[in-house]
Structures are given as C-alpha cells and as structure tokens.
Design a protein that fits this description.
Shape: elongated
CATH architecture: Alpha-Beta Complex
Strand content: 25-35%
Number of strands: 5
CATH topology: Ribosomal Protein L22, Chain A
Largest sheet: 3 strands, antiparallel
CATH superfamily: Ribosomal protein L22/L17
Radius of gyration: 26 Å
Distance between the termini: 63 Å
Order of helices and strands: EHHHEEEE
Helix content: 25-40%
Structural class: alpha+beta
Length: 138
Amino acid sequence: MADVKTIVRANASGVRQSPRKIGLVASLVRGRSVADALIILSHTPKRAAKPVAKVIESAKANAVNNHNLTEASLQIVQLQVTAGPRLKRFKPAAMGRALPYQKRSSHILVELSGEVKAKKPEVKKAEAKKPEAKKESK
C-alpha cells in the first residue's frame, strides 16, 4: 500500500498582496518536496514568503493529520497563485484631481501528494483469563 498517491489541498483566499509578487516566491518552491520548500521560504527575504509558507504548512498538516500520509513523502504537485478581488481607490493629485489605483489581492492554492502510511497489523487481544476459585481444604 506504499505506492498509493493521494492529493491534499489547502488554500488562502484574499491575501493582501499582488499576485505578481507572490508568484515570484511561489516559483521558487514549485515542484519541490515540502521540507525543502519550507527551508527555502524561511530564508527568502520577501514579504510574500510568509503567506506561501503558511499555506504549505496548512496543507502538510491536512495531509498528515486528516489523510494519514507520511510526512517525508510529501511533494508539492501544484502551487497556483491567482488574482483575488481588487479594492479600487483614489490618490489625490495636483490641481484638484484624483488618480485611480487598485489594491490587489491574491488566492494561493497548494496541492500536495504523498504516500499513505502503512497500517499497523491488528494485535488480537488475549482473552482475559478468569481467575479460578481457590478451593480450601479443611
């Protein structure tokens, strides 16, 4: 049963950073093992590394605790960054004008695959031995 692969997902919606900036960090760890990805992200000096690492850790926790996968076998199958909703704002400019701009947000989706842990063989409980009543001889 060691060759069975399972896909586990985790996502973060509405991360308040542009998808372009998060995509740069996501491309560093795409296709790697989870352990390598978390080490790379911990040493990446970009603000986008923190939300990407959080989503990967969440997917790892889902895989180990909910889907019974081995932690060492986890690989990043897909790491997708898409555009989220935009907040439309205006910046004051000279001569009483207002210039529009957009505060962008992102959605991060992580899919992991790994091997299912082998089930331990069930140990049959020995039948409880009934203590025999001691016969007293007089």
